[in-house]
């Protein structure tokens, strides 16, 4: 199986690469549209700001490539946020693969960034969520989030509910960092590897 | 519910984990990678690696161990020590660290905090603060270059003022190391942490003084910190993380089992 990690030039690429390596998959890291198109599965990592990350995808001429993928595509953290229609972080249009919007977190006075281990709820039957339960903790670091909507596959509560995992057709994303969420995070990555459309 | 974090801190010198008492007399504890792996498997929520020699002797330090840790560790980790520029930080983040922590270089050049925030985002930028209670003035003061006793110096900053300054410059998390308590295992400096908590709008991590399980429950319940960092109690096996977590959970504190 050929897994390609899109080389967005952001910081968590090696963490994501090593996480798949621990699962026995040697991913390629590429910003070449042809390589990405030919992959069995594509992973979009991301750390930093939506504005910078979208600018990098544009420079690498990857917007169309990512929008036209038919194979499973998973975004992580900012990579997940880039799958949506729009981010209020820098007021920037995103890939619009999932018609949600990224907004500043409404944490009801709780401290931001939302940083640390938190639990999930409203977990759907989606193949990516196989084996997840409400007692599992995953690691979050973010100040912007997608509000729960029809595309939420799991939610998290921090002051208010927000979407922890989103999905539509061949595209999905996790707001948390599966590469840094211990065995629970590894389960999401394993589910992604096994995901058949 | 967001869990309080337990964070073993590994002080690194020349690629080995060391620990001193009140920042002095460092003894070698062991190799970094197996220790890091052991803590991750034991249930640590996060790890911090402080390269304690880096800022104080002004040389470029070999950081290849960062990547070796990233390969085996599946929990977040932060690297501190000797990060003076955006390029320094970028290399460490590329090697797989999740956050970088700055201390002395931020005191020498506070704009570094703004630059790190701009390039990597607030979530990556941790500011470590070494705070010492001066009995004569009755004030908490910030110290610099604490990795090397001969160069350790008091700065012009009172701790509260420096906390406000780094928040305004875009820090995403603060690690407050209470130097009077460091390594002596008499408990965290609850009074100081409480007073800083009131003005700290980002996650606050307590450091310095952990010696017993009660110290952890105290710092979470009395000072409402987001995480508690400790070194010697973990390295010396005085507290087992699993037992610590079980007792904190029993005390009603939100902890990842």
UniProtKB/TrEMBL annotation, chain A:
UniProtKB keywords: Amino-acid biosynthesis, Cytoplasm, Glutamine amidotransferase, Histidine biosynthesis, Hydrolase, Lyase
Regions annotated as coiled coil: none
Catalysed reactions listed for this entry: L-glutamine + H2O = L-glutamate + NH4(+); 5-[(5-phospho-1-deoxy-D-ribulos-1-ylimino)methylamino]-1-(5-phospho-beta-D-ribosyl)imidazole-4-carboxamide + L-glutamine = D-erythro-1-(imidazol-4-yl)glycerol 3-phosphate + 5-amino-1-(5-phospho-beta-D-ribosyl)imidazole-4-carboxamide + L-glutamate + H(+)
Pfam family, one: GATase
Compartments, as annotated in UniProt: Cytoplasm
Record EC number: 4.3.2.10, 3.5.1.2
Pathway the protein takes part in: Amino-acid biosynthesis; L-histidine biosynthesis; L-histidine from 5-phospho-alpha-D-ribose 1-diphosphate: step 5/9
Residues annotated as the enzyme's active site: 77, 177, 179
Subunit structure: Heterodimer of HisH and HisF.
Function: IGPS catalyzes the conversion of PRFAR and glutamine to IGP, AICAR and glutamate. The HisH subunit catalyzes the hydrolysis of glutamine to glutamate and ammonia as part of the synthesis of IGP and AICAR. The resulting ammonia molecule is channeled to the active site of HisF.
Name of the protein: Imidazole glycerol phosphate synthase subunit HisH
The species this protein was found in: Rheinheimera aquimaris
From TrEMBL, chain B:
Reactions the enzyme catalyzes: 5-[(5-phospho-1-deoxy-D-ribulos-1-ylimino)methylamino]-1-(5-phospho-beta-D-ribosyl)imidazole-4-carboxamide + L-glutamine = D-erythro-1-(imidazol-4-yl)glycerol 3-phosphate + 5-amino-1-(5-phospho-beta-D-ribosyl)imidazole-4-carboxamide + L-glutamate + H(+)
Gene3D superfamilies: Aldolase class I
Domain of life: Bacteria
Associated pathway: Amino-acid biosynthesis; L-histidine biosynthesis; L-histidine from 5-phospho-alpha-D-ribose 1-diphosphate: step 5/9
InterPro entries tied to this protein: Aldolase_TIM, His_biosynth, HisF, IGPS_HisA/HisF, RibuloseP-bd_barrel
Residues the record marks as active site: 11, 130
CDD domains: HisF
Keywords from the UniProt entry: Amino-acid biosynthesis, Cytoplasm, Histidine biosynthesis, Lyase
EC number: 4.3.2.10
Top EC class for this record: lyase
Subcellular location: Cytoplasm
One Pfam family linked to the record: His_biosynth
Assembly notes: Heterodimer of HisH and HisF.
Family named by the database record: Belongs to the HisA/HisF family.
Protein's job: IGPS catalyzes the conversion of PRFAR and glutamine to IGP, AICAR and glutamate. The HisF subunit catalyzes the cyclization activity that produces IGP and AICAR from PRFAR using the ammonia provided by the HisH subunit.
Protein name: Imidazole glycerol phosphate synthase subunit HisF
Species whose genome carries this gene: Rheinheimera aquimaris
Organism classification: Bacteria, Pseudomonadati, Pseudomonadota, Gammaproteobacteria, Chromatiales
Gene name tied to this protein: hisF
